[in-house]
Amino acid sequence: MCIFATNLGAEAYHVIKWAPIESAFGYTIEIKDANGKTIFENAKEPSVRIKLSKGKYLYRVAVLNKFKKIEKWSGWNELEIRPVALPIVTSATSEVQSEGNVDKITFNGENIYEGTKAFVIQDGKKIPAEIQTSRDGKVSVVSINQEQVDRKKNYKVTLENPNFDPIEVPIVGKQTATWEDPRAETHVSETAKPVDDLKKNIWPMFWRQALLPGWGHYYIGEKKTAYAYMSIFGLFAFNTLREYREYRLDYIDFKSNQENWQAIRALDPSGNQIPFFTTSIIEEIALSKLEERENKVRQSINLMGIVYLGSLLHILYTGYSHQSKDLNQSNNFQMGFRYEEPNLHIRSQDKNQMRVDLRYTFFY
Question: What is each CA distance from 71 to 24, 75, 348, in whole angstroms?
Fold first, then answer.
């Protein structure tokens, strides 16, 4: 048995399960580490939650009778606790196998365990899928509910382990089509995704990005990019509000002082007490500061606009890149031989000689 731990250093809690025994009134599990240290735990159910650090252990389980006495021990079993690693897919089936209303994809891999999550990505949507892995963690099967996906369109399957980015499971020959000419040799090619589907797939992520920069990337699972856009746009928006608030305060002060200057001029129209140019200079200085504050507000708004437009262009590029990649991968070059009618000619020139002509057309 192998258990994967997300905490690489200190001890962490892990769950060990075993097959239940109908006549058991409880269980006792004995765990022994590499140094010979032994741990005993009692459990009513066929599982136990225990704190262990990474390493190799031996364990055995005892069945308790109704008097809570040990009835019988199992044999020793190996137990290894490893740190979580990035999932690795080494192979995939050539096509999706259907069983009822479920599509199953079988593949070989490593670092796939109970905590590994599988998702189906189609039209920008992230749909959870069921995954089952063999005891040794080498063979896994992803089950996809046909009611949750459009089987006429391409999709991809991803695997995720905690603290790691998702990886894609390569699926060969998900959708196939054959040549219509029954006389020709059978050829199989990938079905290309129509261009209209590309627009439909991009639209859900685009309108989300238009409402909030970063939401579109979050929708397709690119969370790091999404958080970056949300943080940058949020900082610029906060700075814009702050600059606008300062501008409004300066504007109110300017209008108030302007009324005072006009009152002073009205009391001394000839400028005998206070020269006329004095109030004009003060007013020009205050107006200059107000314009400077207004420019800062405009600069903040421009920065917000740059981030906003950049996020829209980025989501369009991301969407078309992903879809174009699927489209390019689906267009396989095919070639072969096709015979034409009449395909066989036999001509006899004399009784001692015969000529046979075979005619084929080479196509690609």
Answer: 9, 14, 93
Cα–Cα dist 307/8, whole Å: 38
The structure tokens 């940058």 sit at: 232
Reported as a single tens digit per residue, the pLDDT across 30-67 is 999 989 999 999 999 999 988 888 888 999 999 999 89
Q: CA 318 to CA 205: how far, in whole Å?
A: 10
What's the DSSP call for residue 167?
Answer: E
pTM (predicted TM-score): 0.37
Cα separation of 142 and 155, whole Å?
Answer: 13
- Positive or negative CA dihedral for 205, 207, 209, 211? negative
- 104 burial level (CB within 10 Å; 0-12, 13-18, 19+): middle
In tens, the pLDDT along 294-337 reads 899 999 999 999 999 999 999 888 888 766 655 554 444 444 44
Tokens of 33: 């580490």
How many Å apart are CA 46 and CA 19, to the nearest integer?
7
Q: Do 283 and 261 meet the contact criterion of CB atoms below 8 Å apart?
A: yes
